[in-house]
Structures are given as structure tokens and as C-alpha cells.
Amino acid sequence: MRVGEPAMEFVEIVGGSCVFLAPTNMGVYHWGDKCILIDSGFGRDNARKALKLIEGRGWRLVAVINTHCHADHCGGNRLISRRTGAEIYAPREEIPYIERPELHLRSLYGLAYPPKDATIRLLLGDNCRVNHPLELGEISIEGVKLKIVSLPGHSIAQIGIITPDNVLYAGDALFTRKTLEKYAIPFYIDPEETVNSANSLLKLGVDAVIIGHDRVIWREDLRQHVDFYVSRVEAVEEAVLNSLDMPLSTEEVVSKVARGMGVQGVMLQYLLASTTIKGHLAHLLGRGLVEAKLENFKVVWRRRKD
């Protein structure tokens, strides 16, 4: 490990359900001498660390399940699959973005390639073929039954995975106060689906939830984390609506809201925050609270008066 690199901590939760705590967590479910990895982390270095820890326990990795297509959750796929022969499982709708990560980056900039700076590399991973498209419901991998649940909003078809131990691996369906203190505007593409997915975590009856960032959340603590996250989504929506005290173009709304909430002025955060804010504008339009009109080749937004 290089000086300054965060360590990867192995945590046993219950039964065969475990997690490698890292900048982006990687779930592990093991039985006998076999194991499944849930999300492969960002980049090759984290993938190598995870494989070293897995091999050190004498486990054979047979599959990787991606909760969604973002590079910090599937960026280790190619290295892991090539080294172990593990097959990749992912939500059907997200497979094109996993197999060609550049598509996700381009999707944040109208499918053109965004202006480059040092930060946008964090949105890119290695191309990797997905072997098995996932549908919702029960699946079996080498005799182990897992339940796939729908958790969209953060991405178009994000999933969660419930193990036989009643532990849910939820990807980025929930961000905690710790993460939101660092990133005031969390990334999601649909605020309504994001809130619905977060609230649905409370209805699944699981004993523990593993999210992509931060530590294990136990059943008794889940509601406070969900409520805090939902309140942040609502705060972003309120900020977007309140920004329209005068007619503004889309870019002007993005700039006003992002600067007002203290978002870091780098290309990565521009792409992420602008997507979230545009999602709120679309949601407010659907609710009839704002109106949009093309003027001088700009989409101009106004708050409805009636």
C-alpha cells in the first residue's frame, strides 16, 4: 500500500455476509471455499487489494455482482474477471454503461465528450463484458439464492442484493450524513425515485444495510439515516425552486444552486451536480411548479405564479 492510501478493512457482519470497507465498499458473501463480490470498487488497485484479502482467506471468487454502472462500483470488473474467471452480473438496463464506461461519462454531457480536467477520470473504468443480465426476484449462483430488489434513482436501474443472512447490499441508494457533509448535492438522476428507493429500505425488513460509502447500518439505525438523506434531497429541491425568483436558463440555475450549496468548482462536480439539479427541474416541471420555455436558444425556467 502506498503512503497516504486508505486501508481496506474487512468486516464480518453475520453468517457469510461481509464487507471490505474502502472509499467505495465492496460486499462479500461467502460459503464453503467460494465467495461472491458485490461491487468491484474503483480501479485496479482496489481490485488487487480485494483479491489479495479474498485469496488470503482461502476463498475462490466465482462471481461479481454490480449494483449499478458507476465506475467506483464496477471499475475493478475487468482485472478481477481476468485474474479469477469470475463471471459478471449486472442490471440489464445498465450493462451498456458497464461494458463501455465512456458512455456514462458522455451521458452527463449530452453524449458529447465533456471538457477534460484531472477529475473526470474518476468517472471512467475499464471496459468489461457482463456475462449475466439481472432481473428482479430470486437468483441462484452456484447454489446460493439471492434476492434482487429495485433501487433506482441514483442510476437508471440500480439494484440491491439481499443475502440468505437477511443483509442488504444497497449500492448508492442511501448516503449518510458523513458523505453529505462532504458532498452537499448528492448525485442522482431522478429525485422522486431516489426518495422512494431510500424509503423502501425501511420496508424490506433486513437486519443490516451495506451502502457504497460509510460503515454498516443496522436495522435500528436505518430510519434516521433514511430520514436525513430524504431531507437533503428535499433541501436540494427547495433550493432549485427558490433559485427561480427570476427567470433563469438551465445553466444559470445550475450555477446558482451549486454555488449556493458550496459545491466544489471542478469539472467532475459540475457534471454530477448539474445532472442532479436538472433532475429536480424536470421533477418540478412534472409537478406543475415551474414552467420551461425555449428563448433565444436557451431553456428558460420560471416559477409558476398560480
Concise account of the structure shown:
This protein is about 35% helix and about 25% strand. The protein has about 300 residues and is of the alpha+beta class.
Structure, described:
This protein is 35% helix and 24% strand. It is of the alpha+beta class and 306 residues long. It has two domains: 9-235, Metallo-beta-lactamase, Chain A, CATH 3.60.15; 243-303, Arc Repressor Mutant, subunit A (Orthogonal Bundle), CATH 1.10.10. The chain has a seven-stranded mixed beta sheet, covered by helices on one side. The chain has a six-stranded mixed beta sheet with strand order 8-9-10-11-12-13. Strands 14-16-15 form a three-stranded antiparallel beta sheet. A hairpin with a 4-residue loop joins β2 and β3. The chain is globular.
Write the layout of secondary structure elements.
Layout: E1 9-14, E2 17-21, E3 26-31, E4 34-38, H1 43-56, E5 60-65, H2 71-74, H3 77-84, E6 87-91, H4 95-99, H5 102-107, E7 132-134, E8 137-141, E9 144-150, E10 159-162, E11 167-169, H6 177-182, H7 191-200, E12 208-210, E13 217-218, H8 219-242, E14 248-249, H9 250-260, H10 267-286, E15 290-295, E16 298-303
Helix pairs in contact: 1-3, 7-8, 8-10, 9-10
